[in-house]
Design goal:
Elements (H helix, E strand, L loop, with lengths): L37 H21 L8 E4 L5 H9 L11 E4 L3 H21 L13 E3 L12 E4 L2 E5 L3 E7 L8 H14 E12 L5 H14 L26 H10 L2 E15 L2 H16 L8 H21 L8 E14 L21 H9 L9 E5 L2 H4 L8 H15 L8 E9 L3 E8 L7 H4 L2 H9 L3 E7 L2 E9 L4
Parallel strand pairs: 1-2, 1-6, 2-3, 6-7, 10-11
Antiparallel strand pairs: 4-5, 7-9, 8-9, 11-12, 12-14, 13-14
Helix pairs in contact: 1-2, 1-7, 2-3, 5-8, 7-8
Length: 495
Amino acid sequence: MAPDLIEVSFEIPPLERLVLDDSNQPAKDNTGQLYISSRSHRLQAVNQQTLWEHFLRSRLVIPDGAILDAGGGDGLFFALASYMVFNRDNIGRRTVILLDKEKNKVRRAREVAELVKRNFARQTTSDQRPQGYSLTCIVLDSQDLAQMDTQYMIINGQKERGFPKVALVWSNSMFHWIKEPGDKYAALNNMNAVLQRGGILCMSMSAGGTARDFLRAYNKVFAELGVYDSISNPKGFLRAQFEDDPIGSRPLDEIVNMLEDSGFDVRRAVTFRESATYQHPREYADTVGVYGRDSFLRAVPHYGEKKKRTLWAKIVEEFLLTLAKKGWTEGQPYTYWQYNNYLIAIKRSAITTQEKRIPNFMPASYLNRTFLQHGYEDSILQRRGIKIQVSGDEEQIKDRETVVDIADIVRKVLIYTSREWVENDVSPICHIKYNVLNGNQLKLQFEVKTIHEMDFGKEFPAKALSRLQEQGVNMDSKFEGGVRIYEFRIPLLSI
């Protein structure tokens, strides 16, 4: 069990008071919505405060320089900074450079930044300084972190000036949205490139088990939609773009390995279990929608905005039904538990763009009862009531590594399993077996009762299938005694 949320050593005002208008009232946008509120930003605020507390407890010293808010969204970190960062004597006011790939969030962040700067100046006026103190937040044009320009700061379409070497990269609840390992390494490469030597990276991201009930509802609704067919099911989802976990939760050891591979020395790394209480579960669903709706609905790009809103509302209603089955009743508050990774690291050395980063994965992180239950049995398999039984010698895979993304294989096979399991099986059990052959190959088997035989070419996108073949993975299937067996032989790295 992950440890519970630690107590922070600082105070911030109610979230609604972080962004104020010129009348000192909670600021609203042109649609009448609050820029920052506990309803829309509570989870993110919990993550931000916990990440900062972990940094404080690391006792590291930030060198002189600016802060890059990587994946900064609509500017929450800048709104929090004057209460938890800038008010410390050994840190002081710093320039914040905000980068995000979503254009609407960049626009909103610029509005938030202006309001925060004006409010801070009002709060710090004195006889000696009638204009108050100034804060600086530079919001860059929308860019993907994996493809960002590390040489110039691009603002309003113009290369304004050179990108400074920053003292701190702040990445809160963003890294899990980057799905491909290659893109993750590209993003870490860019973070490393803009950090000065000895600079600090503070990162939080989703761990396994996050948003379990919401993911269960999402998977059920999409299962009912069915796979897209232009003739027979034009309202279905595109299988190649569907993800059972759009959040992209990853285990802590995998991310630590990535950071170490990318020129960082990890000083603090932990998975925490933390909670946030809402007056109603719909408020939690609103929070998910603010930061993740596009990712959850990426498998229906053929839907217009009206149909997407209707589909999202259906997921929310199914979420409420899921909670009701677990005992929640209308009128009760909803306490949400999530699992988050927190990492504090120091830049060790620059990574040249010519270096090809190959991620390593540890089979033991995925082929265990806890991960399989929280990651799959309690979510995508729950609709059919399918249980997972895993068998193998844990000592054989302890400390072993492979370049093959085992979690992706497990995910794709289990998505197919959930969708195609025979309907008349009253006690469905998916058997996952593994053993190590000749010390250098992992034999991974799935024993399932599905209606049809899985076509590897359809279930695995062409890019993923090609990558597996390049990595030396052998795939096979057979039918024995009413059970389909899918087998993967996966090369292991030498010890």
